[in-house]
Design a protein that fits this description.
Structural class: alpha+beta
Bound molecules: adenosine-5'-triphosphate
Oligomer: single chain
Strand order of the largest sheet: 6-7-8-3-9-10
Radius of gyration: 25 Å
CATH architecture of the largest domain: 3-Layer(aba) Sandwich
Helix content: 10-25%
Number of domains: 2
Number of strands: 24
Amino acid sequence: MASIALENLAHSYLPNPGGDNDFALKQASHIWEDGRAYALLGPSGCGKTTLLNIISGLLTPTSGRVLFGDKDVTASSTAERNIAQVFQFPVVYDTMTVRQNLAFPLRNRGMEADYISKRVERIAQMIGLEADLHKKARGLTSDLKQKISLGRGMVRDDVNAILFDEPLTVIDPHLKWELRTQLKSLHREFGHTMIYVTHDQTEALTFAEKVVVMHEGRVVQIGTPKELFETPAHVFVGYFIGSPGMNFIPVSVTGNKAHINGNTIHLHHDYGNPQGDILLGIRPEFIQLTKSDGLPVQINRIQDVGRHKFINATLFDTEINIAADEGFEIEADMVKIEFDPANISIFRDDWRINGKAINQGEGGAV
Ligand code: ATP
């Protein structure tokens, strides 16, 4: 296994790229640690596959280097990189049995028969294929075939990394959760470096220790699910993670106060005097609907979604969402909101700014 370092990496599909907009992957450097489970998350077209293909060696970057551990692999072929890959659609040998399919990567490398047999049994057991080991792959459902692909990806213990490209797309929805859990325990047991590409935040957040969020060809944050939720580095992360996402309210900020339409919101940090487009970010969970003091809102609609109610409201010119517990009674004179100051984020030109912590006794809700 190895850490993966991307050094000043950038990629354009154009022969003579000019500005940033010509790059599917804008220049950046990152280190992905050895033995960790990463999810590469972002909407369609943000550059996930481009980045994965550069790591696997299917694509040579326009500039920059890829290192596995200390070794520069930028010019190495996929085979030389010693990685396993699982693709969106199953890749199995139809004429072979499930056992032969799982054993194939090990046979190919001349492993001992005894080792192969034990390893195949173990993988089959962890991924729920034991009962099917003797069956020919040809007649199996696409769910089972994709399980074989996943098993084949995991069967070698000497790979530098395992790359998954949206591997659960063809899997029946009720099986997805089960397979994600199995992949997670396989990771815990074998400790491979894993990179899992998905556009589905639930998949990313439940599978990965660290989620790499991409937006318009850029990695905007690498963080634990908790970090992405609590301290998004970029407005895109706030918006993309969570359902509904973070609310963003245009404000101006001086010191530990945010100002909006003549109202003041007290903050837990001192931000100085930031210039540019300043947004106050707060998740729906940290806004309280009240009758007393606060910012005035107009309620547009209420949506009951089982354990929560989501209240859509307008604060001056900005539409916001507020989350309340299912038992919360919304009364007609509740037309004010308060923010939990500990959970307010401030963004300048789309990027989070971290203020200086101040005495929290000074801060009020609004
Ligand atoms: P998806 O989830 O839809 O696969 P993605 O996040 O994997 O999207 P990429 O496939 O990496 O995104 O695409 C990033 C950008 O590069 C997109 O604008 C896409 O149109 C462009 N692109 C991808 N492959 C090529 C190619 N072979 N030639 C030209 N442009 C490409």
